[in-house]
Design goal:
Layout (H helix, E strand, L loop, with lengths): L2 E7 L7 H12 L3 E7 L5 H10 L4 E4 L4 H7 L2 E2 L1 H6 L4 E5 L2 E5 L2 H12 L8 E5 L3 H12 L4 E6 L2 H11 L5 E5 H4 L9 E4 L14 H4 L4 E4 L8 H8 L4 E3 L2 H16 L6 H7 L5
Parallel strand pairs: 1-2, 1-3, 4-6, 7-8, 7-10, 8-9, 10-11, 11-12
Antiparallel strand pairs: 3-5, 5-6
Bound molecules: NADPH dihydro-nicotinamide-adenine-dinucleotide phosphate.
């Protein structure tokens, strides 16, 4: 019997998830159907019920419903609990289990696909939104020498710093304090702000990025964003956008649902947009 899965968001027309999951299914011989669902804001729970009544087995969640997905779960994995948001649900009888694969997908892309190990490195993470909250535990688990998290609204960074400081060497700050004495300090700089979605640059200076081995932009498919352009001008050796993260988090979801891990390389290549 064909098992039904979906991705939900608003808007959803841009989503690459159906193509990614169907490519995984073909590659691994899994019999699934995977559909996009656009829900009105406030209409998440009703769409989940509709999907479950049709025998749906799982759901990927994109903006703006990751908090709704978290709220509707009957069980949370540790990663979902830490992130305070879910990007994946599994429907198992009456149980609705919430997961969050954003952080592990990002970390896997950086370490495995881009060959940039985090252990012992100094990492700067910009932003403390949903994606960053998933990334912080995944980064700290890899034992960097230091993880500095900076946010436009400093207060949010401080709150988050208190929540996660027990997991490792974490410094949380506003952007102003960040520029004092941090020039050339970081091996890896990750932009998890949504500034690029509006063609904006988070308030960082080139000197902060100088000497980094990798600048990583979570937004994908946008070519050279203002952040990546700044990184290139600062002489950063390698630039990447979030297409690998997108495919890796999908692979984690697929493996969780189906018990088989797909190969991600060909799918990443298919979706990659040159950074020009
Ligand atoms: P959120 O809305 O949850 O968080 C937005 C963050 O960006 C906040 O920290 C906010 O700061 C900051 N911000 C927004 N605009 C600016 C600006 N102009 N200058 C500086 N900081 C700014 O977004 P998400 O965490 O969901 O998404 C963040 C990015 O990650 C997006 O680009 C998204 O597309 C991408 N993403 C990629 C994924 C992938 O698979 N590749 C998966 C998930 C997200 P403040 O708190 O001050 O408002």
């Amino acid at each position: 019997m064909t098992d039904l899965y979906a991705v939900i968001g608003n808007p959803i027309g841009h989503s690459k998830s159906p193509m990614i999951h169907m490519a995984f299914a073909q590659q691994t011989g899994q019999d699934i159907q995977y559909i996009p669902v656009e829900a009105p804001v406030g209409g998440f729970a009703a769409e989940v019920e509709e999907l479950r009544s049709r025998g749906g087995r799982g759901l990927n969640i994109t903006a703006p419903f990751k908090l709704d997905a978290y709220a509707c779960a009957t069980e949370l994995t540790e990663r979902a609990r830490q992130a305070g948001a879910a990007n994946c649900l599994s429907f198992e009888g009456d149980r609705v289990v919430a997961e969050n694969f954003d952080g592990v997908g990002l970390a896997r892309d950086i370490e495995t696909n881009l060959s940039c190990p985090m252990r012992g490195r100094r990492i700067l993470l910009l932003g403390v939104g949903g994606a960053a909250r998933g990334a912080i535990p995944a980064f700290l688990e890899r034992a960097p020498a230091e993880l500095v998290v900076a946010n436009r609204t400093a207060e949010k960074a401080h709150t988050l710093g208190k929540q996660f400081s027990c997991l490792g060497n974490l410094v949380a700050t506003g952007f102003d304090a960040l520029h004092e004495g941090h020039a050339g300090r970081f091996d890896l700089v990750v932009n998890a702000t949504s500034a690029s979605l509006h063609g904006e640059l988070p308030p960082v200076r080139a000197a902060l990025l100088a000497d980094a081995a990798l600048a990583y932009e979570l937004a994908y498919g946008k070519g050279l964003t203002p952040f990546l352009r700044l990184a290139r001008e600062a002489g950063v050796q390698r630039l990447a956008d979030g297409v690998g993260m997108l495919v890796e988090q999908a692979a984690e979801a697929f493996a969780w649902w189906r018990g088989v891990r797909p190969d991600t390389r060909a799918v990443i290549e298919r979706l990659t947009v040159p950074l020009v």
